[in-house]
Design brief:
Elements lengths: L1 E5 L2 E5 L5 H8 L22 E4 L6 E4 L10 E3 L3 H17 L4 H9 L19 H9 L6 E3 L6 E3 L14 H5 L44 H7 L1
Parallel strand pairs: 1-5
Antiparallel strand pairs: 1-2, 3-4, 3-5, 6-7
Helix pairs in contact: 2-3
Amino acid sequence: MINLTINSLNVSVEEGTTLLEAARFLGFHIPTLCYMDGLSPYGACRLCVVEIGEGPKAKLVSSCTYPAEMGLNVRTASSRVRRARKMILELLLASCPQSKTIQDLAAAHDVRQQRFKQEYEDCILCGLCVRMCEEQMMAKAIGFRGRGENRSIGTPFDITSDVCRQCGGCMYVCPACQLRCTYTEPEKAVCGGCANLSPPCLQKEQFDDMMCYMDPCVACEIKKD
């Protein structure tokens, strides 16, 4: 067993357990976008970042791919982690502003606007569709193409795949395809119409580490009612 500390709590996990799995075992919520149970972790969206280490050597890592290590000190909601997640969500909104999945994540993390140029590219290269097609559908009909800003997802040589069964699995897991936000002004990246943006129980900026880890927050749920 591996002993480590997550948000000041000691936990023992089996070797090979990721930080995301260990945190969720304790009930600590970590947002994810490119991660899905049943698919191999990919670490593309970086939304699941956590802070490990102490002092100047502390660093941010993706919890879905980082394995638990003996004596590791992990913080899932420090001020540094929250700033990083908000920045990531702003970038995701710039690429896919009409995704309700991303809209809801942004609203839940108090992102009121995004400062980057809207691209409307839709695909955020999370790789969920590629892994679903290969690992669950056993087809490998689609994959990544190109590098850098030219990276995209499609069939080899843009030729219709003979192994694609048109099962729709790729669309089922895609955060851009699942639900589309129908807000009438797409230039406004976060409408917040579907989320409670005013948690009554906590002033997060007063603390370096978030004090409330409940998901959903009991006080927020009561306020909704």
